[in-house]
Amino acid sequence: MSRSVLITGGSRGIGLAIARKLEAAGDRVAVTYRTGEPPQGLLAVTCDITDSEQVDAAFGKVEAEHGPVEVLVASAGVTRDQLLMRMSEDDFASVVDTNLTGAFRVVKRATRGMLRAKKGRVVLISSAVALRGESGQANYAASKAGLVGFARSMARELGSRGITFNVVAPGLTETAMSERLTDEQRQTLIEQIPLGRLARPEEIAEAVAFLSGDGAGYITGAVIPVDGGAGMGH
């Protein structure tokens, strides 16, 4: 049956690929975005996930159009890369506020309806960097690693209510972010990936579609790496 799905940060990159995948499967898909043009063919609502009032308003719009959110994918995220000695407190706090506390805000709001329905799927988009670390990304790695502890705590807290919480940890993916790399940086990173290439956004979307589907009903608290083997063993 068609489900009400909300994907934060779903207007581009990995988030948009997930939205298109679930839409093609017949779900009623809504996405949040902050800037730029909203994607065509999807219910798009503006929302800054660092603002609880905007989060609540976005959910209200989605619920009015599609009904209570049954599947939440928290994909919105930012980077402010810098070596620790040059990283300001704002560089650190703003990344954590968006990537980790932002996920807390949207999960807390989504679970209202899920608790009433006694079912739900939540998938948090983390990163291979969360598991293996990366120089210059202490803020990003910390925020994305926090999603693992958050998801597993929620899996224990709300599992008896039929709500699953899982994490997908993509490696370097063909998105606007990776396009900013120089050829030398790109090649250095590819050499660290056993499969020898970057991921396609659609490959991340496949993992999310599985975890949000009926076939993953007995999977919760899991971390699924989709990173070409870059982070294996972590």
Automatic annotation (TrEMBL):
Molecular function terms, GO-annotated: oxidoreductase activity, acting on the CH-OH group of donors, NAD or NADP as acceptor
Family to which this protein belongs: Belongs to the short-chain dehydrogenases/reductases (SDR) family.
Ketoreductase domain mapped to chain residues: 3-173
UniProt-listed GO biological process terms: fatty acid elongation
Pfam families registered for this protein in UniProt: adh_short_C2
Protein name: Beta-ketoacyl-ACP reductase
NCBIfam families reported in the protein's UniProt record: PRK12826.1-2
This protein's record includes keyword Nucleotide-binding: no
InterPro entries hit by this protein: KR_dom, NAD(P)-bd_dom_sf, Sc_DH/Rdtase_CS, SDR_fam
Keywords annotated in UniProt: Oxidoreductase
Lineage, highest ranks first: Bacteria, Bacillati, Actinomycetota, Actinomycetes, Kitasatosporales
